[in-house]
Structure formats: structure tokens, C-alpha cells
Amino acid sequence: MADLRLPRLPDRTPVKVGIQVTPQLFADLTRYAALYKETYGQEEAIADLIPSMLTAFLDSDRVFAKTRPGGK
Asked: Shortest CA distance to 36 belongs to which of 24, 20, 50?
């Protein structure tokens, strides 16, 4: 078998997670979704925005980044 430069892709099977949020957080998420639509001209459901929001948050947390394998 040939050695490819691209390693085997990681598991990308979505995992469904159910959460409850406070009314204030839901209102903030609703306003964020409206601002997203105003900014990009495309409406996205809150549930579709949350994974990217969480990823951005985790990626920006320097302390958390140090706990990841190869983290700096």
C-alpha cells in the first residue's frame, strides 16, 4: 500500500447532544442568529450555529489548548 501524504481522516460521525439553556442565553442566541443573517445574508438555525461557536470558543482558550495533544 502506498504512503499517502494525507493521513487517514478522523471519525466525523456527528454526535447529537441535547442541552437546556436559560431564557437569557436563548434570547442572546436568537439575537446572534439575527445578526449572523444580517451580516452574511443567510439564515442559519441556532442549532447549526452552536457547534461553530463552541469550536471557536475552545480554540481561543489558551489554557485548554495546552491540554490537547501537541498543545502549546
From this structure: 50
